[in-house]
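== Protein entry: sequence and backbone fold ==
=== Local backbone shapes as whole numbers ===
==== Amino acids and backbone structure tokens ====
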Amino acid sequence: MELDWLKRWKLYSPHNIAIKDGDTGREFSYAKLFDLANRGAHYLHNQFGIRKGDRVAVLATNELEYVFLFFALQRLGAIMVPVNFRLTQREVDHIISDSSPKLVLFQEAYREVVENLPSSLKPELLKLQGDNSFASFLESSGSAEEYSFTSQENDPVMIMYTSGTTGSPKGAILTYKMIFWNSINTTLRLNISQNDCTVIFLPFFHTGGWNVLTTPFIHRGAKVVFLKKFEADQILHLSAQEKATLLFGVPTTMDMMARSDLFNKVNLSNIRYAIVGGEPMPIELIRVWDKKGIPVRQGYGLTEFGPNVFSLNEEDALRKIGSIGFPNFYIEAKVVDMEGKELKDNEVGELILRGPMCMQGYWHNEKATNETIKEGWLYTGDLVRRDSEGYYYVVGRKKDMFISGGENVYPPEIEQILRTHPSVLEAAVIGVPDEKWGEVGKAFIVAGQGSLTADELHQHCVRNLAKFKIPKHFVFLPSLPKGDSGKILKRKLMELAPN
């Protein structure tokens, strides 16, 4: 299994553009990207002693230097830990504490966060860009002797933190084997070639930012254009200008682009299809894009497996609306009941998966790993059914997670924060439909003595939770509905939620 992709493409197509900054226009060939990754490896090893197995955390937006770093760390066998820049100090502290990085690279905008890490956490700090930074060294240094690629297929390449179902995010360990086989699966199902181009706006703290299209594209010697954030007009403009051939989005971003005045003006004829994940795309929106000449391929995946796991052929987009299609190559899928017994067609059960693109486990969390991976099968927690033609449909979630604007949100984490407010006795959160974001949180609160307002709770959440996790609605109740065991009955709360 060849893992040193850049070295191969430096030999095969050294002058082809590998990556481009859509905001500034800076671009780098495969030969230059290899050279920068090699120089970065020497610098990180010589200056900070980074070696195999060390963790290196990053708090930054989608910068080209982030990509240089990713491939530099691969040469060293070190492990990258992308940190969500939207998180609060408390949430960042947990990730840094859990992963124990030797070095943290950061953008100037997040200096205050890294400088306020608890004194018990003492990683070295390095700016990603600017004076005396990772970028400035790469710009000033000359060519360096090749740093041998030390990583093996079962070595971790990154730890990707997912929102926690029990209050704290867990670090999924992604290996080289996992991203290699995800790339193979993606290439086979999406027909990716060296001539492809895509515009990426998903943040690098998501597996989607790296592994939906970025790593498969680089594996195939294709071109990736990066943006720091999603802006509908900019995505449309760049997709036309760069002659993009594939487009990825979630229903929220696809809707925002379709509503743009630019949508009917730009030439997107080079796009073969759009890949949509996160949640089912409304049929009306699929038709809007289809009329534009861009069929939609609904997909499904997760940080812990893939992430490109299922794909619906574009010709089935309307006929099989709501379906995630079939499992991709080299993936086994089953629908099972609570006892793990495989179910028949059209029976609803939990989706479990097996294949070489499964995570290694959760970082320093053997209990969670053993609960998720059993006898080689990864239990997704998603409830699905398979129809008589073999098409799969996600029908619900075994746990309470909902998706807001493409972001996974887990109510237990929000509930834990709400209960830290001195005037809150009980709290329960569910996801409810929202026209803009797909779903948003609705919090049901039982207050203690004294007055308590929705605004007070909102501000409490602002201080402790990323924006996308903050409930949009707060409802005060004298008590929460409970079963005989005392467990809160969220299905009863659903009856109080809007349709």
Remarks:
- The radius of gyration is 23 Å.
- The first strand starts at residue 17 and ends at 21.
- DSSP finds 16 helices and 26 strands in the chain.
- Residues 30-48 form the longest helix (19 residues).
